Amino acid sequence: MRIDVVSIFPEYLAALDLSLIGRARRDGILDVRVHDLREFAHDRHRTVDDSPFGGGAGMVMKPEPWAGALDAVVASGPAADAAVPHLVVPGPGGVPFSQALARSLAGEPWLAFACGRYEGIDERVYEHAAARMPVTVVSLGDYVLNGGEVAVLAMVEAIGRLLPGVIGNAQSLVEESHEDGLLEYPVYTRPASWDDAGTVREVPAVLLSGDHGAIAAWRHRQRLERTAQRRPDLLPVSATTGALADLDVRPATPADAAELLVLQRACWVREGLEAAGRWVVPPLAEEHDDVVRGLVEWTTLAVRARAADGAPGRLVASVRARRHPDDATRWEVGRLMVAPDLQGRGLGRALLALAESLAPAEVTGFRLTTGVLEEGNQRFYRRAGYRVVVGAGTPAGAVDLAKRRP
Ligand code: ADE
User: Fold this and answer.
1) Scanning 1, 175, 269, 405, which has its CA 20 to 30 A from the CA of 111?
2) How far lies 347's CA from each of 243, 262, 352, in Å?
3) Does the domain at residues 2-174 carry the CATH identifier 3.40.1280.10?
C-alpha cells in the first residue's frame, strides 16, 4: 500500500519509521511518502495561512499550497494507469474513525492524508480535491487536537497493521477489541501468584485449569461484562434502542442476587400455584446461594429502571444465557422475567433478542425451557421463532423450545 502524507511538520511523521509500521516500510509492504506543505507555498516566507474572511479567531490554511501539494501527489502516481489516492483529511468534524473504517481503508491501494493546522483548511481545497479523488474527513474522537498529524499516526498504525504480513500472528487480529463488536478479555502471564509488595494477586483459576471450553466461556463472559461496563454503547443494538432504551442494562453481579431472587419468585409464583405440588418449579425452589451460583455459570443481565438523575434504580427485568456446557453450538437462554408493572411493553421480547445476540459466533441454535402450563409464555416464544422440541430429559412440568440461529 502506498501512503502519502502532507503536513507542515513532516518531522512529526518520523514515528512511522519505528516498530511494526517501520518494519512494514522496510519490508516493502508500506510505501510511505511524507511531503512538506511549505514546499508548495508561493512566497519567500513560505506562507501557508491567512486570516479568515468574515472575521473570527485564528488563521485558515490557504488554498493554493494545498492544491499544489495534492496535485503533485496525484501526478506522482503510476503513469500507466489513472490511479488516484483516497484522500483522508483528519478533523474533529469528520466521520468517526473505527475498526470498520480502518479495515475498509486497508483495502485501498493508495491513501493520502492532508494534515490541517490552525482553524482548518480553506473549504475550496476540499472541492478541488473532490474533483480529482475520493475524499473523506475522519475524526479520531470528540475532542480537538492541534493538527492532523497525531491522528494520521494513529490511523496509519490501525490501517497498516491490518495489511497482510505486518502482524506475524493473524489470529491475534481476530481476537482483539472491536473486531467483533465486543471489548477484549483481560490477559495474564507468569507468575500465576504475584506478591505485589504484600498483596497477593492471583491469576483467575479457570485460566490454569487446562479446560479450553471453560476458558473460552470465561473469556466470552469477561468480554460481555467489560463491554457492558465500559462501553454500553457497543452492546448489541437491541440493548440501547426500543423497549430497553431508557433502562440500565448490565451483567448482574452477586450484589444483584437478592433482588433477582425476589423478582424470580414474583414471576414464577402463579406457575407454582398451578403446579400445586405436582412438580418442582426451579425458580421458586431456589435460595439466595443458588442465584449467586447461577451468576457464575450464566451471563445474567440485570435491567434497572433509571432514577430521575439517570442512576440505576429498582430491578425491573432480567435474562440469562450461556453456552451449553457440552455443546458449544447451542446457546441456552433462561430466567426471562419482567416486573409485573412493566409487562406488555415489549421488554421481554427485547431482552430475549439481546440474550440471543450475545451468543458467540460458533452458536447455531438457541434453547430454552418454559412451564407446560404457561401457555402465554409458549405463545410468546413461538412468536419469537421458537418451536417445541421433545427432548430427552425435559423435567416434569416443563417444555423445551428451540430456534435455529437466523
Ligand atoms: N484534528 C484535530 N482534532 C482532530 C480529531 N479529533 N480527529 C482527527 N483529526 C483532528
Assistant:
1) 175
2) 5, 19, 9
3) yes
